[in-house]
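Listing 4. Sequential folding, example run.
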Amino acid sequence: MEEFKKAVERNIAEYGFPVALDEKTGAMQWVDMRKLELSYLICIENIAPFFEGMREGKLLTTKCKRCGELFFPPQKDCPNCRVSEMEWVELKKEGVLETLTVVFVRPPSFAMHDPYTVAIAKLDDGVRITAWLRGDPRKVKPGQRVRVEISRRKEGYLMYELVPIEG
């Protein structure tokens, strides 16, 4: 990293900007020299059952008592009816893979991970879920059945992910 910084400093002197050459193409790239660190708090009190459910291996979400629409991720209020009349329901943890993409250029907060696959599936309950896909992305395709599993992330916390169903 130190060598990279020195190269950028040389390029500032030569070109007038913090640039580096792409290793593969030789194309000039802007190098943002600022360090970015981000921490934030999000209140989850109104959707605490979602997290409690994951601890029990369940995938819970909210359903509007008035219009009957399911929301995932769970919401405190129905955006359609504009009311807070929600009930908690357990989702079926199977569905169909709709699309996927492999993330090779990872944001700094995920730099410790190998390239990973993000996928969208439509669960049998009708809601769409976006999650990391476990396994080799070359061995799955849209239309394939997947299931949602609760697993422990590299960082140590629980999260849900999509897993292809063999067969």
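-- end of first protein; second protein begins --
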Amino acid sequence: MDFQVLNVGEKMRSWFYGNSLIEDGKLKLVIPIHPLFIALPYLLKNQDKFLELDEILTDEEQPAIGLLEKNKQLLKTIEKVADVKNVCDSRVYRYNSQLAMQWIQTRFERIKLCLQEEAALHKAILDSPDVLNRYTFGVLSDYLSAEMTASAKQFLDITDIKCEETVDMNMYGKRKTDEDELSKEQPAKKPRESIAKKQLQKASKGTMSISGFFAKKTK
């Protein structure tokens, strides 16, 4: 069995271990992974011709990929995603899209079954086949390349989320038009004077202005 190591952690997390406090709260999770998921992108890249495994599993950035050449599980199951031929003393492989999609479908069904049996999901997800399929595919797509994810989505007939709420733009436009017409018909209202201003004007009747008070009087 092959495994992948995932680093899981948050900045604000620590652990109590006996009477001690571990400041670094990061965890390393060891999870089993099928080696075909790792080999699929390399098979897809060389899908046009038969090649030996050491010619397919080459990567300058990830030279350790060559270790899969001797992986027993990969050698045992590679026929599920590729055509295989014996040429002289060599064994050659070529990616088969139909076989690969069928194998991905089996993994999809297995993941979905596990999710249902564990009953760890919200009832709203489990009760809706489409939602459950989208959730399952989201888990599966983490192990697929972008190109293969698109092909698998179409093969498995995974539907996108449908937006049930729609806006009637015609009604909105009619409403704006009616409001504009109503504003044209009604005359503009004059600004109302404040009560304090009215009282000040009333109290000032019959009094002399400040400039008139200081002006020179003529004899």
